[in-house]
């Protein structure tokens, strides 16, 4: 096998990065990017993390938390996101969430076949938290031992008419005939400002890759997401224990940095809890008091509770009881 073209990542020399070439689409060449952090003492276990919408991997504390427990941490910047976005591309646009399966499959091959990990946990956030269960339901890999979903996007938040049959038909029709039509929306910068170190937050990341004002939303992309929602609502059978983390509360009123830092101001947590059991037969749902949309970016005392919840869940259902679950 030829040498793998690893290079140091922008996060520092502890992180190596590699580009995954994918088949071109209508816009031209397509790539994904796999970032890796090795533990001091490998255990043969790994984590594969998938980010959310208008996002990319910069979660160094989260990666280190897993590495400190012996997991090799891999993070995938999907096509047209983050490190994988190219100048000729429409950011984040796909017409079907299943398009992402190609890069997840290739990352999985690297983790299990090339690097030899026999137990892998999939971690995913927001829109990634919808894509990852769809992938796991179809692929059913024997190395998949658990899934951790952080504020997964399980339904369309907002007024009831947005989830009505008429709206669904309209999205289907427009998504077919005018897929690149932008959906008008007003996006507050409050959430981004509550995160970024230059605006009073705690986290340093590239605002060109994760802009404060989010990204445009297109009808064809929304159609893909709503089809994913419909598949989830019909019931998936993800063949491993799944942990669903969310904030305890959502807030959709006038936003401040305080509400953004202590509530999910992006998704409806009641919907997350409603649909959590549709992921599979073994799902644990935990609401973290005071958490924000990306739970592991919450305030220190809050994310400490989140990490404690993950640790307890791992000990109960993944590390100790894996043999009873057919692993």
TrEMBL record:
Residues 45-250 form the Serine aminopeptidase S33 domain. SUPFAM superfamilies: alpha/beta-Hydrolases. GO terms for molecular function: hydrolase activity. It comes from the Bacteria. Transmembrane segments: none annotated. It holds the Pfam family Hydrolase_4. Gene3D superfamilies: alpha/beta hydrolase (3.40.50.1820). Keywords: Hydrolase. This is Alpha/beta hydrolase. It comes from Nocardioides glacieisoli. The lineage of its organism: Bacteria, Bacillati, Actinomycetota, Actinomycetes, Propionibacteriales.
């Amino acid at each position: 096998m030829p040498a793998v073209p690893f290079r140091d990542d922008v996060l520092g020399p502890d992180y190596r990065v590699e580009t995954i070439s994918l088949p071109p689409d209508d816009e031209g060449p397509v790539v994904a990017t796999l970032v890796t952090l090795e533990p001091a003492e490998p255990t043969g276990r790994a984590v594969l993390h998938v980010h959310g919408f208008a996002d990319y991997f910069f979660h160094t504390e989260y990666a280190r938390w897993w590495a400190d427990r012996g997991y090799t941490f891999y993070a995938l910047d999907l096509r047209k996101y983050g490190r994988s976005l190219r100048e000729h591309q429409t950011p984040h646009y796909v017409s079907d969430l299943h398009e992402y399966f190609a890069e997840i499959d290739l990352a999985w091959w690297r983790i299990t076949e090339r690097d030899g990990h026999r137990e892998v946990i999939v971690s995913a956030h927001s829109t990634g938290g919808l894509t990852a269960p769809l992938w796991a339901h179809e692929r059913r890999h024997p190395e998949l031992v658990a899934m951790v979903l952080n504020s997964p996007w399980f339904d369309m938040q907002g007024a009831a008419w947005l989830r009505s049959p008429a709206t669904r038909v309209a999205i289907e029709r427009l998504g077919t005939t005018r897929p690149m039509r932008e959906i008008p929306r007003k996006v507050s910068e409050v959430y981004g400002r509550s995160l970024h170190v230059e605006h009073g937050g705690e986290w340093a990341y590239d605002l060109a890759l994760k802009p404060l004002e989010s990204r445009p939303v297109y009808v064809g992309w929304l159609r893909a997401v709503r089809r994913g929602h419909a598949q989830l609502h019909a019931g998936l059978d993800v063949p491993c224990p799944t942990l669903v983390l969310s904030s305890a509360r959502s807030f959709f009123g006038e936003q401040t940095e305080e509400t953004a830092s202590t509530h999910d101001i992006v998704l409806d947590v009641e919907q997350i809890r409603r649909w959590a059991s549709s992921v599979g037969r073994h799902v644990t749902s935990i609401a973290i008091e005071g958490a924000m949309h990306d739970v592991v970016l919450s305030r220190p005392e809050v994310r400490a509770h989140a990490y404690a919840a993950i640790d307890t869940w791992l000990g109960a259902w993944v590390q100790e009881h894996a043999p009873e679950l057919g692993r």
